[in-house]
Amino acid sequence: MPSHRVCLLISCLVFFLAGTIDAHAQSWKKHRYVTDGFEIEFSGEVKGTPTPLNPETQKKVVRAMQYMQDGGDYVYAVAFSLNKEGVNFEEGPKASFAALKCKTTIGDTLLPLPGGRGREIRGVDCHDGTMRAECRYYTTGKWFYQVITLFKKDGGDEKAARYFLQSFKTIKK
User: Fold this and answer.
1) Predicted structure pTM score
2) Which pLDDT score, from 0 to 100, does residue 75 have?
3) Which end of the chain has fewer CB atoms at under 10 Å, N or C?
4) Element (H or E) spanning 68, and its range?
C-alpha cells in the first residue's frame, strides 16, 4: 500500500499536469493589424471578412472589416470601420449592443483611451436568451472599433472572454 507521502506526491503531479493541460488548451496568440490600427489576442482560428457596405453607408465609411473566432458556444470578434467623418460615439455602441438582443444590461462603463474614447457594455439573456455579452467600444480619430464577446451565460468561460477584451490595444499606423 502506498505511503501517505507517495499519495500526496501523485496527487500534486496529477494536479500539476491537469493545470498544464488546461493552460495549453487555451493558448492565446497576438494578432497585429497595423493597417487597421490595433492588436488583439485570439485563442483559435481567426477569420477576417470585409463588411459589406450598401451605397448609403459607402458615403460615410471608407472601409469596414471584421475579425472573428467562432468557438461554437462562444464568439470573439473585432469589427471596425474607418469613417469619412467623425464617429457618433453616443449612438455607435448603443446600436451595436442592441444588435446582440440582450434582455438585460448589467453594466455600462466609460473606459480610458489615450487620444480617444472607450466604453464597456455587458448584458445577459442575449441572442437567443442563453448567452452573455461583454463588449468594448473605442473611437480614435475616424476609427470605430467594436470588441465583442458572446458566450454561454451558464457554464461559459467569462475569464477567457475578459482576457480577449482586455488584450485589445490601438497601435500607431
Assistant:
1) 0.83
2) 97
3) N
4) strand 61-70
